[in-house]
UniProtKB/TrEMBL annotation:
This is Signal transduction histidine-protein kinase ArlS. Its EC number is 2.7.13.3. The lineage of its organism: Bacteria, Bacillati, Bacillota, Clostridia, Thermoanaerobacterales. Its main location: membrane. The keyword ATP-binding applies. PANTHER family: SENSOR HISTIDINE KINASE CPXA. The chain crosses the membrane at residues 12-37, 155-179. InterPro entries: ArlS_N, HAMP_dom, HATPase_C_sf, HATPase_dom, His_kinase_dom, HisK_dim/P_dom, HisK_dim/P_sf, HssS/ArlS-like. The keyword DNA-binding does not apply. Residues 268-295 form a coiled coil. PROSITE patterns: HAMP (PS50885), HIS_KIN (PS50109).
């Protein structure tokens, strides 16, 4: 069985992180205060015993060959927690300020240097001095017990630890509530977003005045919803337009099948006419389905280009020849540079030229002139398809590349266009990183310019 490690909620994680940082700062701060204080107390004690040693050295005197301890000030100058020991040069203790158990600390080393030691669980500071006057040598040792200072430090430590624990607990609780408050908008967004589905794409998140990260998130989310809604709407329109377009050839096919069923069996002419018409409609439908598929692929960025290097002049000649064969009454002029080679998808470029030439033929009078120009301009290959036909009204120009868009619905029905040609042309040009521009004047003519980067 796989065990899954469950992370606590983000509120708890942020609160924990902050209180961890706070605890580390608090502990480091308190530890530095305690250590600082400890060393301050030790150095204070060093100063005390050094002063006391000095005073004692000044007050001691030798009387009749022996050291005189009768000086009363001597004993008074030694405080409670301090212990004075005088040792002669033979190591015999000649004076103890208190009749306590002897504390054995080397007395001949570290002369005049205060030292801190830990002995039998006691924290002590001591200083050794030499009394050398009138031919007499004595060792003087002052030991100070730092018990009360250490007790104070211990007490302080306990108090600080308690204060730290309370502080950390408060920071944890406060951190949790502050974070909960701060990320409240996320809970709201989760609730609202859960409510949005394909049927409720028009719903938007509320955006409040303050410009924080959550507002930016809500704005970004709303603009994503705008795009989604738009693409959903476009997709729906596309599907209903496509079904509508497919219905027309289907109903024609149905009509001919009915005619064939009734009379075709008996009348050869009707049979032949019916078959011809069905073939034509089948070809139209195939073309329409192919175009729909191409648009769908272009939309989902799934259009695969089989690029190769080929001579554009050959393709142009081929397409013009095809169009001229089908429209013998048209005058198509070709004006191009020699040998323009291009790296592109050959069949798509052919389709693009077919679309533009078909349109030029469809929207030009029989005696009209159609001109195809193909040139290399600097880094670009430029193709122009020009006609002197009916032109496009200027207010319609922005829409002609939209799918299923026809300028004059009634008239185009005769010419058979589904309003897909130019949207496919645009998909093909953009897939080749090129651009397509239109320049048209009503009753004067239209010029499509395609620019392919070299
Ligand atoms: P269709 O298949 O209906 O021709 P297109 O997408 O190819 O659709 O063109 C969209 C519309 O642009 C057409 O309905 C037509 O009115 C207009 N149009 C396209 N090319 C030309 C042209 N060369 N001259 C005049 N109008 C044109």
């Amino acid at each position: 069985m796989k065990l899954r490690f469950m992370l606590p909620s983000i509120k708890i994680r942020i609160a924990l992180l902050y209180s961890l940082i706070f605890s580390v700062i608090l502990i480091v701060l308190n530890a530095s205060v305690l250590y600082g204080l400890k060393y301050y107390l030790i150095y204070q004690s060093f100063a005390d015993i050094s002063n006391q040693a000095e005073t004692i050295l000044n007050k001691l005197s030798v009387v009749k060959g022996d050291i005189d301890f009768s000086n009363e000030n001597l004993v008074f100058s030694i405080p409670e927690n301090t212990y004075l020991k005088v040792i002669d040069k033979n190591g015999k203790v000649v004076y103890k300020s208190r009749e306590t158990e002897d504390i054995n600390i080397p007395y001949k080393s570290d002369i005049n240097i205060p030292v801190k030691i830990e002995k039998d669980g006691m924290h002590l500071t001591y200083i050794n001095e030499i009394y050398n006057r009138d031919g007499k040598i004595f060792y003087i040792q002052i030991i100070k017990n730092m018990e009360s200072q250490y007790l104070f430090l211990k007490l302080l430590f306990v108090l600080m630890a308690f204060a730290d624990a309370v502080g950390i607990l408060i920071s944890l609780i406060a951190g949790y509530f502050v974070t909960r408050q701060a990320i409240k908008p996320v809970d709201y967004m989760v609730k609202e977003v859960n409510d949005i589905d394909a049927r409720k794409l028009n719903k938007r998140l509320k955006v409040y005045g303050n410009k924080d990260e959550f507002t930016r998130l809500a704005v970004t989310f709303n603009s994503m919803l705008d795009r989604l809604e738009d693409s959903f709407r476009r997709q729906n329109t596309f599907i209903s337009d496509a079904s509508h377009e497919l219905r027309t050839p289907l109903s024609i096919i149905k009509g001919y099948v009915d005619i064939l069923d009734r009379w075709g069996k008996y009348d050869k002419n009707v049979l032949q006419e019916g078959i011809e018409a069905l073939k034509k409609e089948e070809a139209e439908m195939e073309k329409l389905i192919e175009r729909l598929l191409l648009i769908a692929r272009g939309d989902s960025r799934n259009l695969k280009l089989n690029k190769e290097t080929f001579i554009l002049n050959d393709i142009l000649n081929e397409v013009i020849k095809e169009t001229s064969m089908l429209n013998r009454d048209r005058n198509i002029v070709l004006n191009m540079d020699d040998e323009i080679d291009i790296f592109a998808d050959k069949s798509l470029i052919k389709e693009l030229l077919r679309i533009l030439l078909d349109n030029a033929v469809k929207y030009t009078e029989t005696d009209g002139k159609i001109e195809v120009i193909c040139k290399r301009e600097g880094q670009n290959t430029v193709i122009k398809v020009k006609d002197d036909g009916i032109g496009i009204p200027s207010d319609e120009i922005p829409y002609i590349f939209d799918r299923f868009y026809r300028v004059d619905k009634a008239r185009t029905k005769e010419t058979g266009g589904a309003g897909l040609g130019l949207s496919i042309a645009k998909i093909i040009v953009e897939a080749h990183k090129g651009s397509i521009i239109v320049d048209s004047k009503i009753h004067k003519g239209t010029e499509f310019t395609i620019i392919f980067p070299f």
